[in-house]
């Protein structure tokens, strides 16, 4: 049985490692790349290397950015008094799409998962505490996913942060329970935000 | 509403252009790339540029190869007397996976589609004719997809090549009509091959 030419086999293997890409899709993508012009293929390859070289974490909120501070942290029109805590930059972008929230964010980089060895030290919890020192923050909206771990993380943060002064709220369960924030529609997200309650 | 950092937005856009990748998948892939190590991201980018640089067409059968002749054309154990004609290198690989056929291939690079301006001159038909000059080819198995255009291409090739001597056969309709060769299971492909009949 004939094999793919080596560079082609390697590209198929690379695509297969991506999430949600099976062997058939990987093959289809590889053949698609072969049919691209040299410029188009180079643009794709460059976009991959460049994203790794240029994009890092915001020094304040740990969103992805290609500068020291992300677009939201740099924006003087955004309200410093409210911080919305999310587990992932994708959740931040999902909330931004509803165009309702005018405060700032804090990206934890995950949720508490003791079984997988993820405790507060593995998340950006210390960095969130540091943001409360000035006394400008009056409310922290915990917008972790409404899963067991997301809820546990919200309760942990509420217990940790409440003594420091700010009101701690949780987005309402307008977001389908067990679902993924990133996949919620905008109306659900707006409802969830408006229905937030103190923890 | 905040936007992605530019390099991230560009990578998402690049992934969105790939076949079968929607906005959500493109975003998921881009975030996945951000979490890869530098080496892993570079391996993916290199695989893309290298496949374009190193892989071209076999000078004999127009399969993809990184050498002058593809692995199958170079293989002295493969039978020169039978040529299986396919429209696409993916179909060739699908047939190879059944490990039944021991002849050689010819990749047309498409099928006749007059409405899209694809006639014999846009396919590797002339190159197929050239392979018949030696008189060693005794059978040509036309394994284009069993679609209207695939069938029309088979009939066209039969009329063109039959006067030159070789037996012209068509794979049997064991392959589901209207389906795609590349997605057929091996048992179906073996049946289709064994049930081939003269055109």
- Mean pLDDT level of chain A: 89
Describe the biggest sheet of chain A? 5 strands, mixed
Question: How far apart, in Å, are the first and last alpha carbons of chain A?
Answer: 63 Å
Could you please say which CATH topology of the largest domain in chain A applies here?
A: Dna Topoisomerase Vi A Subunit, Chain: A, domain 2
Count up the helices of chain A. Answer: 8
Rg of chain A, nearest Å = 21 Å
Number of domains of chain A: 2
Family (chains A, B): Belongs to the RecR family.
Organism (chains A, B): Armatimonas rosea
GO molecular function, one term (chains A, B): zinc ion binding
Domain Toprim (chains A, B): 81-176
How would you portray this structure in words?
The structure is a homodimer of 199-residue chains. Helix content of chain A is 42%, strand content 14%. Chain A has 2 domains: 6-54, Helicase, Ruva Protein, domain 3, CATH 1.10.8; 77-172, Dna Topoisomerase Vi A Subunit, Chain: A, domain 2, CATH 3.40.1360.10. By secondary structure, chain A is an alpha/beta fold. The first copy, chain A, has helices spanning 6-16, 23-35, 38-54, 71-74, 89-97, 125-130, 148-161, 186-194, and strands spanning 56-57, 64-65, 79-86, 103-107, 139-142, 167-170, 197-198. In chain A, helix 1 (6-16) crosses helix 2. The first copy, chain A, has a 5-stranded mixed beta sheet. Chain A has 8 helices and 7 strands. The interface between A and B is large, with 58 and 58 residues.
